[in-house]
Amino acid sequence: MPIPVFTKTTLFLLVCLLLAGYFVYTASSGTVRQRQQNEDHEAALAEIENLQSRRDHLLAVYDYVVSDAYVEQAARRELGYIRAGETAFVVLSPPPPSDQDLSGEWWERLFPK
To answer: Do 28 and 34 contact (CB within 8 A), yes or no?
Structure first.
């Protein structure tokens, strides 16, 4: 069986085909990489927007906590302070029945099976 001999034209076409394949591969991998970078960029922008809205909320909470209105509310709720002329009252609920089983989680007691 004779060994095939490559001519210069055949070698040139083979090299051109290999180079074309390399360039197609490089271009497609660059496109895929660019698409991934765009997705990462969009995700980072969304996270930045989320963090900025969370920061704005926390700043609003901080502004409220350091205000006199919050101090007054906390003093009334936790310490029972009242202003002059106000009447304090406490709402009492009836005691739970003594035969009621208080084991388990609160939602299991609230919604029995």
So the answer is: no
Direct distance between the N- and C-terminal alpha carbons of the chain, in angstroms, rounded to an integer = 87
Long-range contacts of 45-49 (CB under 8 A, 24+ apart): none
pTM exceeding 0.90: no
| Residue 37 amino acid letter | Q
Residue among 60, 41, 61 at smallest CA distance from 49: 41
Query: For residues 76 and 83, is the Cβ–Cβ distance under 8 A?
Result: no
For 55-90, the DSSP string reads HHHHHHHHHHHTSHHHHHHHHHHHH----TT-----
Count of CB atoms situated within 10 Å of the CB of 2: 4
Q: pLDDT tens for residues 73-101?
A: 889 888 888 888 988 887 888 876 777 66
How far, CA to CA in Å, does 8 sit from each of 20, 22, 44, 70?
A: 18, 21, 53, 89
| Helices 68-79 + 8-65 axis angle, to 10 | 70
